[in-house]
Amino acid sequence: MTMNPPGVSGLLQVLLIAVLVVPAVGALVVALLPARSDRGSRLVATGFAAVTFVVSLALVLTPSQRDFGWFRYTATDAIPVVPFAEVDLAWVPRLGIDFHLGIDGISYPLVVLTALLTTLCCAYTVWKVPEGGSGRTLAALMLVLEVGILGTFLALDLVLFFIFFEVVLLPMYAVIAGWGGVRRREAARKFVLYTLFGSVLLLLGVITVVVAAGTADMLALAGGFGLSRTTQYVAFTLFAIAFAVKAPLWPLHTWLPDAHTEAPTVGSVILAGVLLKMGTYGLVRVGVGVAPEGAAAAGPVLGILAVAAILAGSLICLRQTELKRLIAYSSVGHMGFVLLGIATGTAAGIQAALIGNIAHGVITGLLFFLAGAIKDRGHTGDLADLGGLRETAPRLAGLLGFAAIASLGLPGLAGFWGEAFAVVAAIQRGSALWITLAVLAAVGGALTAVYFLRLLRRVTHGPATPAVTGFTAIARPEWLAWSPLILLTLVVGLVPALVLAASADPVAALTGALR
Amino acid sequence: MTADVLMPLLPGVPLLLGLAGLLLPPGENGGSKDKKGRRGAFLGITGAALALLITIVLLVVVDDPVQVSTTWVSFGDLHVTVGFALGPAALYVALAVSVVALCVQIYSVGYLHDDPRYAPYAAQVALFTGAMLLVVSANDLILLLVGWEVMGACSYLLIGHDRRLPEAPAAAVKAFVVTRVGDVGFLLGIAWLAVDAGTFQIDELLERTGVPTVALVLILAGVAGKSAQFPLHTWLPDAMAGPTPISALIHAATMVAAGVYVVFRLFPLFAQSPATLAVLGLMGAITLLLGALAATAQDDLKRVLAWSTVSQIGYMTSALAVGSPAAALFHLLTHAAFKALLFLAAGAIIHAVGTNLMSRMGGLRTQMPVTFWLFVVGLGALAGVPPLAGFWSKENVLVAAAHATEGDGPAPVWVAWVVWVAALLGVAITAWYATRLLLRTFFGHVRSRTEDWFVGFDDARYEVPPGPAHDPPRVMRWPLIVLGIPAALLGLAAFLPGFRTALELESPHLSVSIVAPLLLLIVGAGTSWWLWQTAPGVDPARALGRLQPLFAAGFHLDQVQDRLVVRPVRAFAQAVRLTDERVVDAAVEGTGTTTTRLGSALATAHRAALPRAAVAVFTGVLVLGLAAAIVGAAA
């Protein structure tokens, strides 16, 4: 039975399904290809990923007949969330669970980013397979990962959301445990157990909401759906902890540095680039969307923790001695800004969080690519052994400088908008607590500059150390994988509307329910 | 209409050419480096020349302030715009910026002729220029912030450019970090202003009344960072590690001028808040004296000039504090001319003698006559010798301060008194160190390069052509001469009605008020000269006695900063890292190991031989049976 949501053209629905089916089929095909054609299968995987990327672009660029004056019945009189493309198939009708997918102004940047990063990582794998296993399996795993991540961003049914959220877990475990560094097993185990703990809470939250509301439809649930205050509080607490583990929010972050340090380059890129975003996206879509009263009540606590994450992340980075570990901890700080934006519960704050999500994905993805390139060439990530990179590899040093400066939030580049407007949103809240949080977050921003400059001074300046001598030039596939990220860093910085243009209405719908 | 198109191009052209320049190969590969350097130089010079051209066209076209804007992005109900607004005053600043930038680009071709990474250097200078022009022309606080911060990043890159100087990377980091600390306040300040007013657009903000004082004071923090005002001035003297043309750029036209310009731009808001003006005035007066005193005892030629910048920017902020933005802007313009001249001329000397230290110079007057006369003009303008540029603008500042002591300005009277006294004292000190610099560098006997000469020689070992020092080559000489003209004559522009109305400057009136500064000028210069006469060849700063090392070290404020900020932050960071590893992470790991141990304990308990297992099963059966019987009996 097809419940054709009115106003959505068939083409858009096909595209919406295709964006999940293509990588899933791709993963299957790649896994079934004979093991001897390893390189060929990696190329096939890249092809599937690229097609997915094109489909995701088409999905966003195809004009929808739904304008935003579209009316949909909701339980409250708030503005409804109207996705511009939607598919709704009955799945388990007796439990009220549908196969309900949709894309709107909040999710589309993340969908496109996921498809792009997967394509880049697959292409990178064609050129270089990290030690540990076959490249074919790695490529297939990345396509499975992509299905899970895209599904999470597209799901409009709570149970479906949970399932996709879980799909991601095991392939990521396998990527870290199979192709990682020396201590990969411990890191992978920590990652999987920690996030599984979060998933249990998420499941509890989902069950609480579905049982109380009698439906799992996130559109119907948006705005609270008349859930009682207590239910919302309980549900939001469960959701918040579950997503805080994924995001990660201090003090639930300690799986991240280990996972990042040990994961292969492509794993780190996917992990930082889009996997962490499942947490912040979930917090916006599910946490704030389904339990707005809970979100409003928990706002100050979340805000305090977010600022603690910003400060702790940057202070730890200041004393960090390993390249990838430093970038991993910088993620803790950056995600702190995103969470601060969400915690404010204002439209400006949530929009800041959305663009902060994308910017962090692009910039940190680039940083991990660069860190991987340096570690592969120098065989060390120890800051004490690296030095004088600009003497031996000026291009690589220049790119590292660019990425670092973008990451510290230079206005005009992507990282600026999310961080600055998280601070603005906190000031908008106006009370003494929020102003204090804004000040501390801004101080954290300055500390970010300090540790990135310390990193650059160690790695790029001064006389060249033995570790950085004899670096090979940047290879063509590397340029191919990096240049989209470099361009996006600049373009999102200059044209932030690319990410935020369609977000105003859905965000207004979310925050409207907060008031 | 023309203006609408040209305004975005004013910052846009140098920024785009700068970005394009960054794409050029860095030019490390021996043979082809010359050509690549030339392409970079071409882009840089074109960018600055086009900016200058656009400014001139705009100056001709624009009579009244013009503006153009379009929405950039919206966050909630806050709209950020890409908006530009230029009035005549802003255009004069843009003119100063583009002239200095063009001179610096051309001069650099000669100064860094053997630099293997010229292309990125020229591109970064172009970005720097474009960013400053963005600050000058922006009509939106966020757009202004973009230019403001890009400048910070460019200063970082350029100060760290010289790979021969071991201290350059540290100085670069310091410049970025110290200004960034100020920018914490700046960001919070503009966020506060915008949230309060519901807009980021400057023209709308300026119409508001009752602006929160906190926001303005926070903005002052950013201004103090960028414009090197006490207590955030410490980065500027160290920034001397950058190539000399960069010093000229930072000190004359960009970066340090940006802070003063922003206060000028937002002055209607500042004028409403006497408390903020009091803070600004105190900051300005302290900086003015601190910079001037520190300049008296430096041995490094560039450091004297750097501290003199700190002091002169103090004059500008003081003028703003006593309610005379026009005087501040006038001084900004004349200062741009003479300080660019002084730095570029200093670069010529450093190139010729191969050192920064004045104790290794002397007698250059005969060897470098052109440079000497240009230096005389520049130092005369700096000290305020009539009729050179600095005299008129400094006079304006002094008159404004004197007026404000009568209590009819926006600033409190006591602030005006503090500023006025400090500014007068500053005149004497400036004259003193300017004379000292001139005497030690150009007079006395020539120091030959004996073995002895190299002792303690730790600045850059520039390769110096053999033979006596000589004036710079043409490509470096012409920019100097071009800058010499405004350094000498710009002050007289105060007599032009058009220029005066553009800046809203009062007409110059040569009354008794000039007697005091002129007397102080003579006292300062005379003392220095008399000390030199009594002991030729000896540093007049020796007369400072025990104060000399204190002044030379800039009142040890670096150490204070190190003790009060840097070390505590570092220690705190270490503590946080340890907490993270030993408490937060250990708790997680602990949960894991505890669970594993519990599991293995249980596993061991279950691992039993048959007899014991049988006994256990039977015991279990017995207990359960008993329980069932008791429960059954009770029922």
Q: Which structural category fits the helices and strands of chain B? A: mainly alpha
Helix percentage of chain A = over 70%
- Tell me the domain tally of chain B: 3
Shape of chain A: globular
Distance between the termini of chain A: 37 Å
Query: Over all CA atoms, what is the radius of gyration of chain A?
Result: 22 Å
Low-confidence stretches of chain A: 68-78
**Number of contiguous helices of chain B:** 25
User: What kind of sheet is the major sheet of chain A?
Assistant: 2 strands, antiparallel
Q: Can you describe what's shown?
A:
- The complex is a heterodimer of chains A (about 525) and B (about 625).
- Chain A is about 70% helix and about 5% strand.
- With about 525 residues, chain A is an all-alpha fold.
- Chain A has one domain.
- A two-stranded antiparallel sheet of chain A has the order 1-2.
- In chain A, helix 11 runs parallel beside helix 13, helix 11 runs antiparallel to helix 14 and helix 13 runs parallel beside helix 17.
- Chain A is globular, with a radius of gyration of 22 Å.
- Chain B is mostly helical.
- Chain B is built from 25 helices and two strands.
- Chain B has helices at about 1-25, 35-60, 90-110, 120-135, 140-160, 170-195, 200-205, 215-225, 235-240, 245-255, 255-265, 265-270, 275-295, 300-320, 325-355, 365, 370-385, 390-405, 415-440, 475-490, 495-505, 515-535, 545-550, 555-605, 610-635, and strands at about 65-75, 80-85.
- In chain B, helix 3 runs parallel beside helix 15 (about 325-355) and helix 14 (about 300-320) runs antiparallel to helix 15 (about 325-355).
- Chain B starts with a helix and ends with a helix.
- The chains are: A mainly alpha (about 525), B mainly alpha (about 625).
- Chains A and B meet through helix 7, helix 12, helix 14, helix 16 and helix 17 of A and strand 1, helix 5, helix 6 and helix 24 of B.
Structure summary:
The complex is a heterodimer of chains A (about 525) and B (about 625). Chain A is mainly alpha-helical.
